[in-house]
């Protein structure tokens, strides 16, 4: 392989550590213009802006800002991985008609995308080539039931040829060649369109399902696609290289024509409305227009490359690939530059590294970048956070959320780096020692690979990377088996919100039927009034229940047990009490007690979220459940909150509740809402503009300012749920538990209102019971006895009390205090028991040692008090031996339903032919038990319900 590079000979100058501040890292328009290849574009900003303005100004498209890379309302995705994600409801025909997006016809945007986990996973390819990325921008234009193939192809060709000035002879297009199995003919229409636009027939190429048919999933909209490929090579005819993963012939634009709907059975039917969804990778386009064969040589990445070099002191990036990059320095540059872009964007959108789903992906990416930085570039600590300002400078104008709190991004990265640095060296040392012990096949067992993850925090790809460098393979089947077994045992497979799933749902065809039938959608605004329509299950809040009544009658026609919103319609699920008929006039009565309890818990959830951030600034909500009987709040944390922190949190929440603060639910334009510092948006109102915000203490619209609580900015969250109208209506809040929900995720459970009052009354009763039991223990201890029955009764009472405390969900601080008192009482009883037992044993030893036959060659059978353990009998026997016992001794005691005995035969008795084990066998036969030992010592355990006095006579 030719390893010469376009940067000339590599510098061999000594490495130097970063001592100077980073240079100005922007590539000026003039400098960039020197490298222009086609057209007059100097910067990524110009290229992106030109794309958007082409469609908005020339073709009447609406610009829609990028959605978050964290699709909170789509559980099927770890990250937003395509431009169409935020328009999925429109494409499926399930969009809520009340939302602005339901009116979209032509749309253009630049969407932030991440592909680092799940089905679309480019993580392992990053750094190995010049064009795979974990984070990328997808330029796209959409038509929702408006224009179709001809317009889409014409606009794409016009933009590339006449605006971006790409040479037409370098472009190849593909179309769907059909599929006999599905009965789909070739997309002859697309082929004819390209030919009519002047593309030569030899550059219009047919491909099958794999390359030229797009599907959303096993069910949903789908259709043929037509791709545009660009030939960067010097080869004049590159038709045979299209779709062959050739690094010089790359797909740049994909035009998807959604005209079918795939049923679960696999059958395809035609959609009533046809859509266009296109995607043009910005990074690849920029490389082409700036005359670069590598994305990393463009102005998107070069500022990062310069910053990495200045901070680490490594040699300059030279673009070496594969085996030519012997020391992996250039690979490291690419990995770090790519990963910091992805991490900055994800954290800015609310992502947090942890051990669950997307959080685990972020942790993997951080650790992958850190290992390359430390091992290959010898970087000092802090490289990733040092690069954050460079990313913000590059992308912040286009995506202002990056500018909102860059210090938070730096903090998260620094914390992760500190945590990982503690385990990296230790884990590598263990791994290398393990490699040395492997057999000639050099296969790391799956359980050890899992230990690297579970014990040292090494993502499996990091372990794989180290293994590859040492010629070791990993038993991935064993790894997966161990992972699943561990998750089953620990139940840490993720956050388990027990939201009820309805057995019924409105699918695409149901919604279309309702729309065609003229059924109006549900007005789902302000639900402060208890008599408004039911609220569906959404954003962690549980559903309303109630009854459908015939107008002017009190008898229920239908009991509503579940509600869920689909495309603007609220589906009511339940059981019919009487017959319902179309056209019947009915009214809906909701269960007001359930609704009010949910309202209290939902507003309390907002207060808890706000107060938690005041105490632990880095805490971010990770999930919630708002039910009538409790609220549940999941958040990221390195460990459990201390007792003082929980007490402070509870106090702050109740102070806010008792402050008589009005709760406002207001509608604001999306752009204004997003500009509010500190606004919380766990479950985003996808496609909503305006959006609903809930603020506590002050109206955002009336004051124009953020609400304040004791001089601090108060709670403001995106939320469309139901809330009380004043904080005091909550009554009080009690945090009843704190536990680990999954790796890095902790969970609070809390109660409010009447539920909190009930458990607090129960807690007070339990506290009184502890006082009563304390008095009983005091009386018993003063009696100076070791009566087994009394001791057992007290211990059982304390055990039952502790179990009751565990099962009552009251304030965890109060619960801890009560349990500590119970533990102290039990320990006092144990201490007293041990003390009195020592006294009892001492008396027994004295009594046995003074027996008239103790020093004679005789047999002594002694019935001891109940409650002695086998070790107590051994202790007595040992001391008797020290007292010069010359007889044989059998000690018997009953404990519970068992009889324990210890047999000793002195040396003199053994010499006379009397064996301890023989005597023990006789006793075991009597007691219906077993024995073990030798001629000098033996033990017996059995069951004997008869009078032991008779047994003593028999064995004497």
From TrEMBL:
Residue span, Alanyl-transfer RNA synthetases family profile domain: 42-762
GO MF, any single term: ATP binding
Catalysed transformations (reactions): tRNA(Ala) + L-alanine + ATP = L-alanyl-tRNA(Ala) + AMP + diphosphate
Domain of life: Eukaryota
Annotated GO biological process: alanyl-tRNA aminoacylation
InterPro entries, A to Z: aa-tRNA-synth_II/BPL/LPL (IPR045864), Ala-tRNA-lgiase_IIc (IPR002318), Ala-tRNA-ligase_IIc_anticod-bd (IPR018162), Ala-tRNA-synth_IIc_core (IPR018165), Ala-tRNA-synth_IIc_N (IPR018164), Ala-tRNA_ligase (IPR050058), Ala_tRNA_ligase_euk/bac (IPR023033), Thr/Ala-tRNA-synth_IIc_edit (IPR018163)
Residues bound to Zn(2+): 602, 606, 719, 723
E.C. code: 6.1.1.7
Keywords assigned: Aminoacyl-tRNA synthetase, ATP-binding, Ligase, Metal-binding, Nucleotide-binding, Protein biosynthesis, RNA-binding, tRNA-binding, Zinc
An example Gene Ontology CC term for this record: mitochondrion
Cofactor(s) listed: Zn(2+)
The record's free-text note on cofactor binding: Binds 1 zinc ion per subunit.
Family annotation (HAMAP family): Ala_tRNA_synth_B
Domain notes: Consists of three domains; the N-terminal catalytic domain, the editing domain and the C-terminal C-Ala domain. The editing domain removes incorrectly charged amino acids, while the C-Ala domain, along with tRNA(Ala), serves as a bridge to cooperatively bring together the editing and aminoacylation centers thus stimulating deacylation of misacylated tRNAs.
NCBIfam families: alaS
PANTHER family reported for this sequence: ALANINE--TRNA LIGASE, CYTOPLASMIC, ALANYL-TRNA SYNTHETASE
Family: Belongs to the class-II aminoacyl-tRNA synthetase family. Alax-L subfamily.
Assembly and interaction partners: Monomer.
Free-text function comment from the UniProt entry: Catalyzes the attachment of alanine to tRNA(Ala) in a two-step reaction: alanine is first activated by ATP to form Ala-AMP and then transferred to the acceptor end of tRNA(Ala). Also edits incorrectly charged tRNA(Ala) via its editing domain.
Name of the protein described by the UniProt record: Alanine--tRNA ligase
């Amino acid at each position: 392989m030719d390893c010469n590079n376009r940067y000339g000979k590599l510098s061999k100058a000594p490495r130097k550590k970063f001592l100077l501040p980073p240079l100005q890292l922007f590539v000026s328009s003039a400098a960039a213009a020197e490298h222009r290849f086609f057209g007059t574009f100097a910067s990524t900003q110009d290229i992106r802006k030109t794309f958007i303005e082409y469609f908005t100004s020339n073709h009447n498209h609406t610009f829609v800002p990028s959605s978050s890379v964290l699709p909170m309302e789509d559980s099927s995705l770890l990250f937003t991985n395509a431009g169409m994600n935020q328009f999925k409801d429109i494409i499926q025909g399930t969009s809520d008609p009340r939302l602005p997006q339901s009116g979209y016809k032509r749309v253009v945007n630049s969407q932030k995308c991440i592909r680092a986990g799940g089905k679309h996973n480019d993580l392992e390819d990053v750094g190995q080539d010049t064009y795979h990325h974990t984070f990328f921008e997808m330029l796209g234009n959409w038509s929702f039931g408006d224009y179709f193939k001809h317009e889409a192809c014409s606009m794409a060709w016009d933009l590339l040829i006449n605006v971006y000035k790409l040479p037409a002879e370098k472009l190849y297009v593909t179309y769907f060649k059909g599929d006999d199995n599905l009965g789909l003919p070739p997309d002859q229409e697309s082929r004819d369109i390209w030919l009519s636009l002047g593309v030569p027939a030899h550059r219009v190429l047919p491909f099958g399902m794999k390359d030229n048919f797009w599907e959303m999933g096993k069910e949903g909209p789908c259709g043929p696609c037509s791709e545009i490929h660009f030939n960067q090579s010097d080869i004049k005819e590159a038709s045979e290289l299209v779709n062959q993963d050739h690094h010089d012939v790359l797909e740049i634009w994909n035009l998807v024509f959604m005209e079918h709907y795939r049923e679960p059975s696999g059958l395809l039917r035609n959609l009533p409305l046809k859509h266009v969804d296109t995607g043009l990778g910005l990074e690849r386009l920029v490389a082409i227009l700036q005359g670069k064969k590598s994305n990393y040589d463009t102005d998107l990445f070069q500022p990062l490359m310069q910053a990495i070099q200045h901070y680490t002191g490594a040699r300059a990036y030279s673009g070496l690939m594969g085996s030519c990059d012997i020391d992996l320095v250039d690979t490291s540059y690419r990995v770090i530059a790519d990963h910091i872009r992805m991490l900055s964007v994800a954290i800015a959108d609310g992502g947090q590294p942890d051990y669950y789903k997307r959080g685990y992906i972020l942790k993997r990416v951080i650790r992958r970048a850190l290992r390359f930085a430390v091992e290959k570039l010898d970087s000092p600590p802090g490289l990733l956070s040092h690069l954050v300002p460079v990313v913000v400078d590059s992308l912040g104008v286009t995506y202002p959320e990056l500018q909102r709190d860059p210090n938070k991004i730096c903090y998260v990265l620094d914390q992760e780096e500190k945590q990982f640095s503690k385990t990296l060296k230790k884990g590598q040392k263990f791994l290398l020692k393990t490699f040395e012990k492997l057999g000639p096949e050099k296969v790391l067992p799956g359980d050890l690979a899992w230990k690297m993850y579970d014990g040292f925090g090494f993502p499996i790809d990091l372990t794989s990377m180290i293994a590859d460098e040492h010629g070791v393979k990993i038993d991935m089947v064993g790894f997966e088996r161990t992972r699943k077994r561990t998750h089953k045992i620990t139940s840490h497979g993720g956050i388990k919100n027990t939201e009820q799933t309805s057995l019924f749902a409105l699918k695409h065809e149901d919604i279309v039927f309702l729309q065609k039938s003229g059924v109006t959608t549900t007005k789902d605004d302000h639900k402060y009034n208890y008599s408004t329509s039911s609220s569906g299950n959404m954003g962690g809040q549980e559903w309303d229940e109630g009854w459908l009544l015939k107008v002017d009658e009190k008898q229920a026609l239908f009991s509503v047990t579940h509600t869920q919103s689909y495309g603007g319609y609220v589906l009511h699920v339940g059981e019919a009490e009487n017959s319902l008929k179309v056209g019947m006039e009915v009214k809906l009565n909701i269960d007001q007690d359930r609704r009010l309890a949910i309202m209290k818990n939902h507003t309390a959830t907002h207060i808890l979220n706000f107060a938690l951030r005041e105490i632990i600034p880095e805490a971010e909500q990770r999930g919630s459940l708002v039910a009538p009987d409790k609220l549940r709040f999941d958040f990221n944390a390195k460990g459990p909150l201390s007792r003082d922190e929980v007490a402070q949190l509870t106090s702050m929440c109740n102070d806010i509740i008792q402050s008589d603060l009005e709760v406002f639910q207001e509608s604001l334009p999306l752009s204004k809402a997003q500009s509010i510092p500190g606004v919380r948006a766990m479950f985003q109102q996808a496609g909503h503009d305006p959006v609903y915000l809930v603020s506590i203490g002050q109206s955002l619209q009336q004051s124009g300012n953020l609400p304040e609580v004791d001089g601090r900015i108060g709670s403001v969250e995106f939320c469309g749920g139901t809330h009380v109208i004043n904080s005091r209506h909550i009554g009080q809040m009690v945090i009843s538990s704190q536990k680990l929900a999954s790796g890095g995720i902790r969970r609070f459970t809390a109660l409010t209102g009447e539920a909190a009052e009930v458990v607090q009354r129960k807690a007070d009763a339990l506290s009184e019971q502890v006082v009563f039991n304390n008095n009983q223990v005091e009386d018993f201890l003063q009696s100076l006895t070791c009566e087994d029955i009394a001791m057992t009764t007290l211990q059982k009472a304390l055990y039952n009390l502790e179990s009751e405390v565990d099962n009552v969900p009251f304030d965890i601080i109060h619960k801890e205090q009560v349990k500590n008192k119970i533990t102290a009482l039990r320990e006092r009883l144990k201490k007293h028991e041990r003390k009195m037992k020592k006294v009892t044993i001492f008396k027994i030893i004295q009594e046995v040692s003074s027996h008239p036959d103790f020093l004679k060659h005789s047999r002594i059978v002694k019935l001891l008090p109940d409650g002695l353990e086998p070790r107590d009998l051994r202790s007595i026997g040992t001391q008797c031996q020290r007292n010069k016992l010359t007889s044989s001794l059998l000690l018997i005691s009953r404990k519970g339903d068992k009889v324990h005995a210890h047999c000793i035969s002195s040396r003199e008795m053994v010499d006379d032919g009397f064996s301890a084990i023989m005597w023990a066998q006789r006793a075991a036969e009597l007691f219906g038990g077993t024995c073990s030992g030798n001629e000098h010592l033996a033990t017996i355990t059995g069951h004997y319900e008869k009078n032991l006095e008779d047994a003593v006579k028999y064995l004497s």
